[in-house]
Design a protein that fits this description.
Blueprint (H helix, E strand, L loop, with lengths): L7 E2 L3 E9 L3 E8 L4 E8 L7 H16 L8 E6 L4 E6 L8 H5 L27
Antiparallel strand pairs: 1-2, 2-3, 3-4, 4-6, 5-6
Amino acid sequence: MDKYIGKRLDGRYEIHELIGVGGMANVYRCNDTVDDREVAIKILKDEYLNNEEFIRRFKNESKAIAMLSHPNIVKVYDVSFGDMIQYIVMEYCSISPPRYSRHCSTRTSAASFTATSSRRTSCCCRTARSK
């Protein structure tokens, strides 16, 4: 079992399930108990917490997503860059895993629109390769 499932982040985000695994982060379906909504949380993998290059990329990705507003880009609700955990809280796209690739061709994150970002994006569906 994943170490985050069943836990609560910052006293408000209840982690329910792993919805995908990416190169540098895992994405979880969570409940925001303060705003009473489902969210997707992208958590930087533990092995990269001490790697300044990965931390820089993760922070840049969150900034790029947060700066844009478009119907086809997931919204960023919150970010946390602590010493023990770094995560981005995003809009959750409630679709079934087999449809992730089709879904993300119409709704993706800001990272795919920025020239400096890699092809991986922060959409709760696209970054995460379905389990």
